[in-house]
Amino acid sequence: MSSIAFIGLGNMGGPMAANLLKAGHSLTVFDLSQSAMQALAEQGAQCASTAEAAIDGAEVILSMLPAGKHVAGLYLGEAGLIAKAQKGTLILDCSTIDAETAREVGAAAEAAGLDMLDAPVSGGVKAAQAGTLAFMCGGSEAGFARAEKILAGMGKKIFHAGDHGAGQIAKMCNNMLLAVHMVGTAEALQLGLNNGLDASVLSEIMKNSSGDNWSLQNYNPVPGVMPATPASNDYQPGFMAQLMLKDLGLAMENSLKTQSAVPMGALARSLYASFAGKDGNAQRDFSAIIEMMQS
Ligand code: NAD
What we know:
Shape: globular
Strand order of the largest sheet: 3-2-1-4-5-6
Number of helices: 13
Number of domains: 2
Largest sheet: 6 strands, parallel
Bound molecules: nicotinamide-adenine-dinucleotide
CATH architecture of the largest domain: 3-Layer(aba) Sandwich
Order of helices and strands: EHEHEHEHHEHEEHEHEHHHHH
Strand content: 5-15%
Distance between the termini: 54 Å
């Protein structure tokens, strides 16, 4: 069992940290939110007053932060955790961020004699709670071998995509596809509703036909079709629309650099930009995009 510093206890980080405690690791946690730390303290974690204090004596540092600027701010520079960590520390950044920042932070860690992996996740809050996340890792073989044992406490499928940044590229491709099939699922269901069909019946038909996909199986955007989805809980996240917009922005920036054609991803980004720009939608679940199809 390892001594782990866990930084970022939001919708995803909170349940991930809880599962590491259940797996028997000892955890010191830090978040800007006191209430997020308090929830973990009640489950047996130690709380630290700064990120630097949290890594004192840690063999593993794990972070789950919103975006690249937060990750760069946490790890880089004289005051960053890479400069403060003890030799041999394993760093796992599970945030979804741009591949350039992941490569930069990974290289800085390597230069300081630390193993670091970008290890973004797929599966959402339900999978974070159930300990069934998928991890997509970028970094060295040796780092990956060490990381697997820790990640197994929070997930069921752990992939090694390649060197630093490769995990983020895999995650970027996956989330662009997620946005596209969520939008497609929402418009197909709304079309059925507009024709008088019952959304539950139509969902069941499509789940057993060629329109089947992850959004339909796990994350139906129509309220009442599935009991535990954000749609059935007033679109409370879940996965905030602003985070999906961030991820689609990463895909668009990368597509310009790599001259990749991403017409469906570009349209999905445009829809999410328009949706998240309206009052309060940025913090609502990304499946609420179905409201754009309702007149
Ligand atoms: P969130 O906003 O709920 O949580 C982020 C947490 O980080 C907050 O508690 C915040 O206080 C904390 N934080 C921010 N800056 C900090 C700092 N400098 N030091 C310490 N704590 C800090 O976000 P989330 O939904 O948990 O997502 C986290 C990451 O996981 C994002 O990159 C997101 O894209 C990705 N992700 C989210 C989901 C999902 O379904 N929510 C699924 C897969 C991946």
